[in-house]
From TrEMBL:
<dbReference type="InterPro" id="IPR010722">
    <property type="entry name" value="BATS_dom"/>
</dbReference>
<dbReference type="InterPro" id="IPR006638">
    <property type="entry name" value="Elp3/MiaA/NifB-like_rSAM"/>
</dbReference>
<feature type="domain" description="Radical SAM core">
    <location>
        <begin position="45"/>
        <end position="272"/>
    </location>
</feature>
<keyword id="KW-0004">4Fe-4S</keyword>
<feature type="binding site">
    <location>
        <position position="63"/>
    </location>
    <ligand>
        <name>[4Fe-4S] cluster</name>
    </ligand>
</feature>
<comment type="similarity">
    <text>Belongs to the radical SAM superfamily. Biotin synthase family.</text>
</comment>
<feature type="binding site">
    <location>
        <position position="137"/>
    </location>
    <ligand>
        <name>[2Fe-2S] cluster</name>
    </ligand>
</feature>
<dbReference type="GO" id="GO:0009102">
    <property type="term" value="P:biotin biosynthetic process"/>
</dbReference>
<dbReference type="InterPro" id="IPR013785">
    <property type="entry name" value="Aldolase_TIM"/>
</dbReference>
<dbReference type="GO" id="GO:0051537">
    <property type="term" value="F:2 iron, 2 sulfur cluster binding"/>
</dbReference>
<keyword id="KW-0093">Biotin biosynthesis</keyword>
<dbReference type="GO" id="GO:0005506">
    <property type="term" value="F:iron ion binding"/>
</dbReference>
<dbReference type="Pfam" id="PF04055">
    <property type="entry name" value="Radical_SAM"/>
</dbReference>
<dbReference type="InterPro" id="IPR007197">
    <property type="entry name" value="rSAM"/>
</dbReference>
<dbReference type="GO" id="GO:0051539">
    <property type="term" value="F:4 iron, 4 sulfur cluster binding"/>
</dbReference>
<dbReference type="GO" id="GO:0004076">
    <property type="term" value="F:biotin synthase activity"/>
</dbReference>
<comment type="function">
    <text>Catalyzes the conversion of dethiobiotin (DTB) to biotin by the insertion of a sulfur atom into dethiobiotin via a radical-based mechanism.</text>
</comment>
């Protein structure tokens, strides 16, 4: 057994690695050994199943926040489509068009620090009358308990709110709101019984220690699903010229989160094709239990049929 297979075996037998061992996953030069072990760890907890989700950008651009990675911030000059809360037909069509495919979850995402109350109520009314068989998720910003309750009553079962990065690195990517506001939102959603999807973005200049610190924050919050996003630099944002990730590093990051959260959903989302390139089809072998398919917030994504073909080709099946 290689060193990572030994770590995986320890995890399966309830022996948690220490920080040095976790960091070794991010720093190894032996990707083949790592993928062999992460595949076995993933197989133990998830067999060959894959979880698919898709998002609808329900309100685009004009955001008051200054997150340096984001094309939707009004502080920058990215060339994106901007629109207020979408017409109800777009939401209904999104639900209807995905009703008969193998997507597990549909998510409604909005720009801005938070969605205003009347728009929250409008979204809630639309989804509560949709009678969809899909699980529904909201990513609507920093909401209070009353606003979260409106969503919960409407049938939205998961709330998505990323921490983005470590506490120490956070002020290098955003200054208009603080880390604790994000933590409080996640805690409120957990307290109210939502399944919580919370992760980060990688490739912004963070260190391996920052990745470890983020994982520790997520563990303390006991989130249910960890989305892994890779920076896809967009012209007009402060990070437009960043190119900090190799395909190999992306796979190490996915494997790291599988080892750190062996029985949690690890969903690889934005930037997976652009960053992983020729190694993209290893996304599940590295430890991902799911992917986001379809369009992203401001960019075209990969077609659902292409992802289904890849999943079958690699010997996996949609949950």
């Amino acid at each position: 057994m290689n060193q990572f297979e030994i770590l995986a075996d320890h995890i399966i037998n309830n022996r948690r690695p220490d920080e040095k061992e976790f960091l070794s996953i991010l720093r190894t030069e032996n990707l083949e050994d790592l993928l062999k072990a992460s595949f076995e760890l993933r197989k133990h907890f998830f067999d060959n199943t894959v979880h698919l989700c898709s998002i609808l950008n329900t309100k685009s651009g004009m955001c008051s926040e200054d997150c340096k990675f984001c094309a939707q911030s009004k502080h920058y000059n990215a060339d994106i489509e901007k629109y207020p809360f979408v017409h109800e037909t777009k939401i209904k069509d999104f639900i209807k068009n995905n009703e008969n495919n193998d997507l597990h979850r549909l998510s409604f995402v909005t720009s801005g620090k938070k969605l205003v109350n009347r728009e929250i109520k409008k979204l809630a009314a639309l989804v509560s009358n949709s009678f969809t068989s899909k699980n529904l998720c909201g990513s609507l910003g920093i909401l209070n308990e009353d606003e979260l309750q409106i969503l919960k009553d409407a049938g939205i079962s998961r709330y998505h709110h990323n921490l983005e990065t470590s506490r120490n690195f956070y002020n290098k990517i955003c200054t208009t709101h603080n880390y604790d506001e994000r933590i409080k939102t996640v805690k409120k959603a957990k307290k109210m019984g939502f399944s919580v999807c919370c992760g980060g973005i990688f490739g912004m200049g963070e260190s391996d220690e920052d990745i470890l610190d983020l994982a520790n924050e997520l563990r303390m919050l006991d989130v249910d699903s960890i989305p892994v996003n890779f920076l896809n630099p967009i012209k007009g944002t402060p990070f437009e010229n960043y190119n900090l990730l190799s395909p190999e590093k992306c796979l190490k990051i996915i494997a790291f989160f599988r080892f750190y959260f062996p029985d949690k959903d690890i969903l690889v989302c934005a930037g997976r094709i652009e960053n992983m390139r020729h190694l993209h089809e290893n996304v599940f072998d590295a430890g991902a239990s799911g992917i986001m398919t379809g369009d992203y917030l401001t960019r075209k994504g990969r077609m659902y049929v292409e992802d289904i073909q890849m999943i079958k080709k690699r010997g996996y099946r949609v949950l």
